[in-house]
Amino acid sequence: MSGAILFIQEDLKITEVQEEVLVGCLSIVSLLGSLAGGRTSDAIGRKWTMGLAAIVFQSGAALMALAPSFGLLMAGRLLAGIGIGFGVMIAPVYIAEISPAITRGALTSFPEIFINLGILLGYVSNYCFSSLPAHLSWRVMLAVGILPSVFIAAALFIIPESPRWLVMQGRSEEAKWVLTRITEREEEVEERLAEIKKAAEAGCADGKDQDKAIWAELLRPSLPLRRMLITGLGIQSFQQITGIDATVYYSPTIFKAAGITGNKALIGATVAVGFTKTMFILVAICLIDRVGRKPLLYVSTIGMTTCLFCLGLTLTFMGSGHEPKGGGAVGIAIAVLAVCGNVAFFSVGIGPVCWVLTSEIFPLRLRAQAAALGAVGNRVCSGLVAMSFLSVSRIISVGGTFFAFSVISALSVVFVYTCVPETKGKTLEQIEMLFQHGDREWQKVEIELGDAEHLVEK
Q1: Distances in whole angstroms, Cα of residue 291 to Cα of each of 111, 280, 305, 428
Q2: Binning pLDDT at 50, 70 and 90, where does residue 227 land?
Q3: What are phi and psi of 436, to 5 degrees?
């Protein structure tokens, strides 16, 4: 959309407010998909919920590509947003539930890898199709988004259902068969199956009674669950209110404020952003199960704070967005480096770790619904940022807006220190134990769990 919006403005003559609504509404409406995704995935299973997400998104993308007016374009965007809401909620939950503890962090980061790959391909396709006539270019840019989700149809006939969901449905033999396919040792199959059954005992009620019990527990949480919700909702919100979607959606606007001119050059600069974002997510995948979640979060949030502050300084004193300052090529270079640095630090930490944490910290009986709540918080914050960026930038300048993002990013460092425990190498059931204790006892519990893991290895 970041490149397509330039040509939509030219073709459909939309206003700045319509542009903000078109860009930001996808994130806001995706919360409907995320909320529905929790219950849907408990009802029909994790993998078929992913299939539903693909169908809904494809329908929205097709409607956008064929839309003759702004109204129908909005309708397609809203439909695509619901599909995305399903997808961002269910994919991490599914992967977390089929992954062994030792590689769960890396595997649960896969959705973030492909989100970033999709962003990069979107930027590249924007660049490739930018030479087409305005009325055609943006339609092709949006239509190519249909193609990747087609492959999900084939995947659904290959991948297994979540063994934890199967146990919750009383289908233990099927769960055991799935575990034999994804686990190397037979003894480990029995151990994991026993753990899953024990965790599922508290959620043995069926239908509406179970739904009511889950929401009653989420709305009136115990102290451990309250800590989980603060951690999950907090990290999801900070992932977005630090401004990453403003950088992704409005990178042409940012580079225009830095002094770059011409649609082709603006879209070309965004390709560098997409490439950087994709490359550094691969770094995160290599490190997340080696160095842990929390160290990556520290590196990420501190690095983002620095880059956002530098970008604010550059656009304020060397940019050409509001008051020309004469920064020229130097200002442009620093702005591009700051934007690329920001997305690099995001991708190496809070981008993937956010989804990993929210898919592994909640008890089995609550996991789908609680993860859905986290995804809702993420999408609301994303939408608020996307739908207000241009208006706020007009009031306090683009540079001033990034100063504000840098302050929020600094607060995220404090949040990580105080509210996020280390979950590396622990089973989903062990992670629950971390939240049974007070904040000061987290480290002690983590050390004890680590010692137990070393003894098992020996």
Answers
A1: 20, 16, 21, 18
A2: confident
A3: -80, -10
Collapsing DSSP to helix, strand or coil, 37 comes out as: helix
Q: Is 319 helix (H, G, I), strand (E, B) or coil?
A: coil
pLDDT in tens, 352-369: 888 888 878 888 778 777
Task: Provide the CA 55 distance to its chain's centre, in angstroms.
Answer: 20
Distance CA 374, CA 234 (A): 8
Question: 245-274: b or e for each residue (b if 16 or more CB lie within 10 Å)?
Answer: bbbbbbbbbbbbbbbbeebeebbbbbbbbb
Q: What is the DSSP string of 216-240?
A: HHHHS--HHHHHHHHHHHHHHHHHH
Q: What is the pLDDT of residue 387?
A: 83
Q: What is the pLDDT of residue 29?
A: 85
- Please give the Cα distance from 178 to 412 (Å, whole number): 39
Task: Return the ∠ at Cα 144 (arms to 131 and 10), rounded to 5°.
Answer: 40
Instruction: Compute the average pLDDT of residues 336-348.
Output: 92
Measured distance CA(229)–CA(25) in Å, rounded: 25
| pLDDT band at residue 323 under the 50/70/90 scheme | very low
| Placement of tokens 């151990």 in the chain | 191
Element housing 424 (H / E): none
* Contacts of 451 by beta carbon, 8 Å cutoff, 6+ apart: none
pLDDT tens column, 248-259:
888 888 888 888
Give the residue carrying structure tokens 């001033």: 400
pLDDT bucket at 234, cuts 50 / 70 / 90: very high
How many other CB atoms sit within 10 Å of the CB of residue 326?
Answer: 11
DSSP string, 97-143: HHS-GGGHHHHHTHHHHHHHHHHHHHHHHHHHHTTS-HHHHHHHHHH
Cβ atoms of 408 and 384 within 8 Å: the answer is: no
User: Residue 64 carries which DSSP code?
Assistant: H
Give whole-number Cα distances, 408 to 10, 353, 413, in Å.
Answer: 34, 18, 9
Confidence of residue 75 (pLDDT cuts 50, 70, 90): very high
What is the distance between the alpha carbons of residues 416 and 439, in angstroms, rounded to a whole number?
12
